[in-house]
Amino acid sequence: MNTATDSPPPIRSTNENVLGNFSRAGVDVIWPHNLLRLRNPDEHAYQFVDGSLCIWPSANGDTLDGRFGTPTFAARRQTAIECTTEIEVIPATDPLVITGISVYLDFESHIDLVLSRSAAGPGFEAHIRQRTPGTGSSEASVPVDSGALRVIAHEDRYEFFGWRDGTWISIGMGLAKDVSGGFTGVLIGPYAEGPSSEYDDRAKVIVKKWVYTENL
């Protein structure tokens, strides 16, 4: 029996393998209850195969900016003020398809870490694209080695990182106040965006790692 002098139990930290929360019932894939998608999702643009989430741009469904168009987006709700989300993606071979990770409040308020194939040669480039009510901006691209991406949430800001030369490098940041409020709160997760496809391999983005950690 607990008494008044007993110490309270320690707060349990969260270190969640998001992809590990998918399950199957026969041939059907059961999505984790805490993953959300944009309104009117194109079900054909999402496939969970061999432990990875495959996503394609789609002409159906809503975009990150609320237009009827192409991004495919899956996200976990941010449930702590300070948290870290890491993903590792295999970008599409089609250079017109981009991917990345979005810190998303609603159609008019989101900060995106954009990953694309380099136009200057082999490798990839990453940059920050931000949309707030009435404005939009995009920062200069930074060369990166792979599809490993990280976003760290602090009380006042979000910091975005890519992977180069065996370490995390800063891509940019955005202010938390620009994506605060709303009914659902902030969602963080990967997306695929580009010309609509017939779900072929050239347009496929593979999310092979997705980890959410709360920084207690």
From TrEMBL:
The residue ranges of the Beta-xylosidase C-terminal Concanavalin A-like domain are 36-203
Among InterPro entries, the record links this protein to:
ConA-like_dom_sf, GH43_C2
Q: What is this protein called?
A: Beta-xylosidase C-terminal Concanavalin A-like domain-containing protein
According to the UniProt entry, the coiled-coil residues are: none
Pfam families on file? GH43_C2
